[in-house]
Amino acid sequence: MQKDESLAGTKEWMALAVLALPTLLVSMDTTVVYLAIPSISSALKPTSSQQLWITDIYGFIEAGLLITLGSLGDRIGRRKLLLMGAVAFAFASALAAFAKDANLLIAARALLGMAGATLLPSTLSMVRNMFHNEAQRAFAIGLWTTCFSTGTMLGPLVGGFLLGHFWWGSVFLMGVPVMLLFLILGPLLLPEFKDPGGAKFDLTSVFLLIASILPVTYGIKQIAEQGIELIFMLPILAGVLFSIAFLRRQRRLTDPLINLSLFKIPPFRIALVTLPVSLFMWAGIFLFVSQYLQLILNMDPFTAGLWTLPAAVASTISCASTHELTKVCPKPALVIIGLVTMAISLVVLTQISGTLPVLIIATILLSLGCGLVVTLSTNMVMTAAPPERAGAAAGISETSTALGASFGIALLGSIGVAVYRYHLAELKVYGIPQTAIHIAQNTFGAAVQAAKQLNGEPGQKLISLTKTAFLQSFQVTAGAAAVVMFIIAIVVGVMFRQYDKQQQSNL
User: Fold this and answer.
1) Contact yes or no for 323/145 (Cβ under 8 A)
2) Which of 199, 234, 236, 272 has the highest CB neighbour number within 10 Å of its CB?
3) 35 SS3 class
4) What domain range is 230 assigned to?
5) Is 431 inside any structural domain?
6) 354 torsion bin: left (phi>0), alpha (psi -120 to 50), beta (else)
7) Do the domain assignments include residue 434?
């Protein structure tokens, strides 16, 4: 039997279980901060801009380095890079937990993003290398996606539990013991993999790639927050110019940082549409969900976390059952079903009105659809990649998901903030000081704090008005997202149809 068709044994499945540790933790760290934002806001008093940086700088930095560090793992060894990343992640987690001001917390979150970028590509690429049988590999990638998705979904629940018993820094400190356990088990159970060709690591390409991604993400974030201004267009333009230089260099190199031939494979291209879009919608909407549960429904952090559990279970079931579903339904049809399910969930959210059932139904649908799309798309990316370049392919895959999630938080969050501020901009109510209204315009969390400082009826009025403004911002954002999601489902359907015609013509 050929090696590429050999079946994985007990050792490989045990190694997969070990890889679940960093996968769960890195994905969890994306969302664990959601429920902590009100507590962080009260303790560190960040500005609205700092608050957004606290939530999304982790994903932006991670996205900027995933491809680079995935390629580095191909060259120096994926296990070696994993262990180095685990040490860095533990250190950054402790730094974030004991941050004394907002700027230090932002810096710690940036370091966490860097460490996370060393972990995710290596875990996924090792799955690609350990499982050579196609059916086993699809199942293993499904389990990896389940861990990633479950970690993302469990973030609010774990965060809620910790916030209910400890201070806000505990949501970051949990990373330390998990990474210490991984550092013990990793060297014992994980095999080492690296590119046997020993390709040279091109530092110029590394610089050009980072200079392509980070300025663009920064510029888009600033435009989303503060509107279209020339000063924010400049970094985007710089990023585009650097990306052109990067692509030209990749075409000339014998051993490029990114093998551009991968983008000629239709399933690979389709996956790089569906992955970022699905994570964009999921992450952006769940930013609203956590605030809705705590600030609209007045739940404590742990109770709010518990009410995200149905969506977490739905996501886990969706990811874990995808391999079986492909036996009865074609993969392209399942991808479209997942996208449409997400779009329907967003339509349901336009009817949100301060009650729990609508939210639960919508988040379950959103997570079912997202789990299906992400699992199938990840498998398409990794199957298209040759084993020696699995790290770079994993980096591309994870970059698209990280960028999608980060842009979702930044753009959908900023749309929500804009709508929220619009409804409060001209607000003048007898008995409510304009200073309190001005404070309330920053964030809903700030409005709650301002209302507590007002006595009796004025405070109740301010809370009522800001709740109405938040609900309207949630509804408008969900409606806009639903329209985009339906359009994407149609576009992806056309792409699959063209690919099918191409395959038939080649027969």
Assistant:
1) no
2) 272
3) coil
4) 202-256
5) no
6) left
7) no
Domain end call among 256, 272, 300: 256
Contacts of 29 by beta carbon, 8 Å cutoff, 6+ apart: 58, 112, 116, 155, 172, 175
**475 and 336 within one domain:** yes
Identify the domain boundary among 235, 256, 277. Answer: 256
- Considering the domain architecture, whether residues 244 and 268 belong to the same structural domain is answered as no
* Single-letter amino acid code for the residue at 21: L
∠ Cα 208 123 394 (to 5°): 40
Enter the DSSP assignment of 313. Answer: H
In 3D space, the residue among 383, 351, 20, 71 whose CA is nearest the CA of residue 202 turns out to be 71
225 and 301 inside one domain? no
The answer as to whether 66 is a domain residue is yes
Provide the total of helices (H) and of strands (E) in the chain, helices listed first. Answer: 20, 0
Residues 211 and 334 in one domain: no
- Residues 39, 168 contacting (CB under 8 angstroms): yes
Specify the number of domains making up the chain.
2
CATH code for the domain in which residue 378 is found? 1.20.1250.20
CA nearest 380: which of 124, 188, 206?
124
Distance from C-alpha of 314 to C-alpha of 342, rounded to nearest angstrom: 13
pTM: 0.76
* SS3 (DSSP) at 422: helix
63 Cβ neighbours under 8 A, 6+ residues apart: 117, 213, 217, 399, 402, 403, 406
Distance CA 271, CA 332 (A): 11
pLDDT truncated to tens, each residue of the chain (507 aa)? Answer: 344 456 766 777 888 888 888 887 777 776 677 667 777 877 787 776 677 778 778 877 877 787 778 777 777 777 888 888 889 888 888 898 888 888 888 889 889 888 888 887 778 778 777 777 777 777 777 777 777 777 776 776 777 777 777 888 888 888 888 888 888 888 888 877 766 665 666 788 888 888 887 787 777 666 655 656 778 789 889 988 998 998 888 888 877 777 777 788 888 888 888 988 998 888 888 878 878 888 788 887 778 778 888 888 888 888 778 878 888 888 889 999 999 999 999 999 999 887 899 999 999 999 999 988 988 888 888 777 666 666 667 777 777 777 777 677 777 877 887 787 777 766 665 556 666 666 666 666 666 666 666 666 666 777 777 778 888 888 999 999 999 999 999 999 998 888 888 777 766
137 and 273 in a single domain? The answer is yes
Residue 438 lies inside a defined structural domain of this protein: no
Asked if 302 and 211 sit in the same domain, the reply is no
Long-range contacts of the stretch 216-222 (C-beta < 8 A, 24+): 216/240, 216/243, 217/60, 217/63, 217/64, 217/403, 217/406, 217/407, 218/60, 220/407, 220/410, 220/411, 221/52, 221/56, 221/60, 221/410
Q: Is 87 exposed, middle or buried (0-12, 13-18, 19+ CB in 10 A)?
A: middle
103 and 118 share one domain: yes
- Residue 111 backbone dihedrals phi, psi, to 5 degrees: -65, -40
